[in-house]
Design goal:
- By secondary structure, this protein is an alpha/beta fold.
- It is 38% helix and 19% strand.
- It has 7 helices and 9 strands; from the N terminus they run ββαβββααβαβαβαβα.
- The strands form 2 sheets. A 7-stranded mixed sheet has the order 1-3-2-6-7-8-9, with helices on both faces. The chain has a two-stranded antiparallel sheet with strand order 4-5.
- Helix 3 packs across helix 4.
- The longest helix is centred in the middle third of the chain and has 22 residues.
- It starts with 7 loop residues before the first strand and ends with a helix.
- The relative contact order is 0.14.
Amino acid sequence: MKGDITEEIVHVRGIPQKVIVFLHGYIDNCECLNHRIEAFADSFDNTAFHIPEAPLLCEIHEGKRQWFSMHRFDPNDDRKTVPSLEECLDFYEKMTPGFEESSTIVQRYIENCLNLYGLEYKDLCLCGFSQGAMLAIYTALRMQEKIAGCVSFSGLLTASKFFAKHKPNTPPLLLIHGTADNLVRYSVMEYSKEKLEKLGCAVQTYTVPDGQHRITEDGLQAATKFITQCFK
């Protein structure tokens, strides 16, 4: 089917009883993400760890990928520089069609992963970084059934107006964000926490002091602890 995920990196330890899917960010790919989180991926026993590659070539970097076009909704990247959080969030609200389109692709991929191992939605944790983190949250709320948990690295809740009208699933979430993130501002973490809790989700947060727009070792440690709790 057009737009389906056909490339991935998979780590399997033991006989898979759980599945973790980790979505890479914008201007990224599964190989680069795998390099950053390989030790993390190999730390879960009896688990299949999947890093799918977005099917779309990146609009601004020939060798990278994107889940959907950011410039379609924000051609000048104004979301990064507008002065207020409200103005910033308005751009992400406009991206709802992009998240819906890419989430449909990710949901099909997840269903295939679960069927491969004979597992259920409750056996799945979904993670993501940056655009992949936003997509992970969106997808976790849009899944047919409730998953074990969702981890966001430098992401946020998008499409809050959509979810206010369409009752979502309510998995537990961990939001990880650095205070010095210059691409996705740190203030979106508290905003996302409040909105997600109003939707009915149990939300934990982890702040990376002076953390920039990247996945850090302490963030991965927090994610490991959270995912272990979710799988119990």
